[in-house]
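tokens incoming
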């Protein structure tokens, strides 16, 4: 069976971070492992505290995973300090990790800062050069490109700038646009919009984590980057459409929705109806 690893923070509220990643990877048909960079005391209304893993401990987590169940793809989410970013970069290069998806998590939906200012520079220096794709939302793309983004044309200019500054593809997510939720993928030789109707659901906690984990899961299964983004976009749209209403703030998505078992696979990589997820919309 294919496997993907999430290197990210834990969200005690279950909507974002490691918890979203493990659900997404599982429902996209790969085995999920995780190296936790920080514990957050968090729910749908906010982040109340953060306890970082030590660089030594994170090293041991990554070593434990790579020396036993080698991931076919890696997703990196919240990493709050430069020291932890350096550990991740060094270990992933040591193991020649493939298909690295970087979600440059900076600020939570609830407004809490999840990365130190100086670590943003380290992320640019250490993680973007080893990523196959990075998935900034609009505020993150503004920081990485150094320009404001107000229109679809701005999105295009900023994503192209990031893609020319770093050797990775860039998926600029349009969730923060007021109109449609269209995402833009810029690769070295191509530019492609992934159109998404804006779903009227205020519960968007964990959308970025979910999208990047679904991309990693599909890369792990051998899909091309473009197909992986396409499948991940379908997954996130399904999970948002299947509306959950939990908690008092911006709640989590519903991963237990049914897309006819399309993304649940057995160990041969074949669709496996007996493992179909039949959560529906409740
Ligand atoms: N209301 C919505 N309707 C449809 N898709 C959405 C909605 N909000 C976010 N998305 C999608 O969810 C994914 C994550 O986007 P975004 O919310 O911008 O990221 P982040 O969680 O990092 O802020 C993108 O594919 C985006 O288009
Ligand atoms: C541990 C962790 N990782 C990532 C996010 C970002 O997710 P969102 O932007 O949906 O709040 C989060 N809130 N918590």
């Amino acid at each position: 069976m294919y496997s993907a690893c999430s290197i990210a923070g834990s969200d005690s509220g279950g909507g974002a971070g490691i918890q979203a990643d493990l659900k997404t990877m599982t429902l996209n048909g790969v085995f999920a492992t995780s190296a936790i960079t920080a514990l957050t005391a968090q729910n749908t209304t906010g982040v109340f505290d953060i306890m970082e893993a030590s660089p030594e401990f994170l090293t041991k987590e990554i070593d434990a995973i790579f020396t036993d169940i080698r991931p076919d793809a890696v997703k990196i989410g919240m990493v709050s300090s430069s020291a932890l970013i350096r550990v991740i970069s060094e270990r992933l290069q040591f193991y020649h990790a493939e298909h690295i998806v970087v979600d440059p998590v900076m600020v939570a939906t609830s407004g809490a800062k999840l990365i130190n200012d100086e670590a943003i520079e380290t992320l640019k220096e250490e993680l973007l050069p080893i990523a196959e794709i990075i998935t900034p939302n609009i505020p993150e793309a503004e920081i990485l490109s150094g320009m404001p983004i107000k229109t679809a044309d701005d999105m295009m200019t900023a994503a192209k700038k990031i893609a020319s500054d770093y050797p990775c593809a860039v998926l600029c997510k349009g969730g923060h646009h007021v109109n449609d939720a269209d995402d833009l993928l810029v690769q070295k030789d191509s530019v492609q919009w992934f159109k998404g109707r804006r779903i009227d659901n205020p519960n968007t906690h964990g959308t970025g984590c979910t999208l990047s984990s679904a991309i990693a899961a599909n890369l792990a299964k051998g899909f091309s980057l473009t197909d992986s983004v396409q499948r991940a976009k379908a997954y996130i749209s399904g999970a948002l459409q299947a509306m959950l209403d939990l908690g008092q703030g911006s709640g989590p998505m519903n991963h237990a929705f049914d897309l006819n078992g399309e993304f649940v696979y057995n160990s041969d990589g074949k669709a496996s109806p007996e493992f179909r997820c039949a959560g529906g919309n409740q």
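note: Residues 137, 173-176, 181, 183, 196, 198-199, 201, 204, 207-208, 211, 233, 236-237, 240 surround adenosine-5'-diphosphate (ligand 1) (CB under 6 Å).
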